[in-house]
Every structure is written in C-alpha cells, then in structure tokens.
Design brief:
Elements lengths: L1 E5 L2 E8 L3 E6 L10 H7 L3 E6 L16 H14 L5 E6 L1 H12 L4 E7 L8 H17 L1 H12 L2 H6 L1 H10 L5 H12 L15 E6 L7 H10 L4 E5 L6 H4 L1 H14 L3
Parallel strand pairs: 3-4, 3-5, 5-6, 6-7, 7-8
Antiparallel strand pairs: 1-2, 2-4
Helix pairs in contact: 1-11, 2-3, 4-5, 4-8
Amino acid sequence: MSILRVREIEMGYTETGRGTAVALLHGFPFNRSMWSEQLEALKGSHRVIAPDLRGHGETTVTDDAATMEEMARDVAALLDELKIERAAVGGLSMGGYVALAFCRLFPHRVRALILADTRAGADTEEARRGREELAQRALSEGMEAIADQMLPKLFAPATLVDKPLVVERVRRMIPDTNPVGAAAALRGMAVRRDQKSLLPEISSPTLIVVGDEDALTPPSEAEALHRGIRGSRLVSINGAGHVSNIERPTEFNSALTDFLGSLEP
C-alpha cells in the first residue's frame, strides 16, 4: 500500500505484480480493498494498480463535487507518476463511470476497457434528487446509515442469506468512507456526462461484466453497453448482484483473466 501526491491531493493505491498494466477503479462508497481477489488473481501475469478514488479510502477528501472527469484525471496523473503510459482500465459501478470518462479524455492510454455493473447513461432527475438526499443523509447521519440503506440493494438475495461474511466485508468498507467524500462523489455522479455517444467511438477491446441479479445497474444496461461498443465481450455472472467481483470472485476472475489473456501483447 502506497500514497503519492498527484494533482494537489494525496492518493492511496495498491500496486502488485509485473507485466502489462491494469488499473482497477472501485465503486461507491467503497475503496481499493474491494479488488483484493482480483489483485491476487492477476499479480502473476500483470502489473495491477488499484487506487482509492478522490474522497475514498486513503485519498484526499475535497468539499466540491468530485466529478468523474476529475477522478479520471487523478487516475491519469497517478499512472504518470508510476511511468505507465497505457493500461487496461476497468471499473465497477462508479468506477465504470470514471473508466468511461478516462476513455473519453485519454483514449490513447486505454489498452483495453473493463466495465462491470455500470451504465453509460446520465442520471435522471429523479436519480439526481435521490443522490442529493443520500448526500445530505451521509453528512447528517453518518455512513452507518448509508450502509443500512444501501446493503440490501447491493447483493443478490441469496448472498444476503447465505454469505454473511461477504456482506459484512462490504458493510465494513462503507463506514470507512468519509461522509464529506461520499457526498462529493454522489454530487459528482449526479452531474456526470451521458456517455452513450462515446460508445461507438471506443476502439479498445472491451469486456462488460454484470451480475444477472444486479438491481442497481441491471443486465439491460450491460446489454446496451455491449450493443454500443463494437466487438465488445459480455459476460453475465449467475447469482451475483451489483458487486459481482466480491459476490462471485471465481467467476469474475475467470472472465477477467480470459479477456486479458486474449489481448495482443
């Protein structure tokens, strides 16, 4: 675990392995530890970097809305510091929004793209209002209240019943997030750009992964990404909800390693 100063903030990250670079971007309101199984699976064949995005984990909290573009520029600056020109860039949920923003801002740096349990569209007005209500709740009641509200929506129903250790692992991550950072990220997601027009322009090899029981970004969103990105690969993970990489790590890692292994050197 390391910290580097980039773009006037301190950015926490984990780096492991050797080989072609892979950057994995976490969802909201988590931190880089959500990728622990993926770092372990890839470290024998790839150089894997998992940063804490702005306002999360060990990375500096800022008061202003943490936009997806700002987060993408943070990631680019971190890769600059690590002397990485190109990488496979992947993200889950909010991390997917950041990965798409990165792809728009720095297309030449994207060796491949991985989009997990995410969507290309912008928020509806109703969704924006919901994010602001959640931001206000985080600031007034703290992140335990956010955990209570979010947890039932994050998992497949069977996971909630049969995998208490998995649920508890995710629950522990949420209160570790600073409420100010969480509110900034919520407001950044609320104003994020609609990326549907970007999809036909993406020429990098792309893997799309979705839990078949994802209630927050359902399989229809993954199918829309698949239709929009020419030549993309779509993998549905049975019995997984929104955090498919944590709920079904074996299946997720198989899709990830197969995809990365198929790329030309």
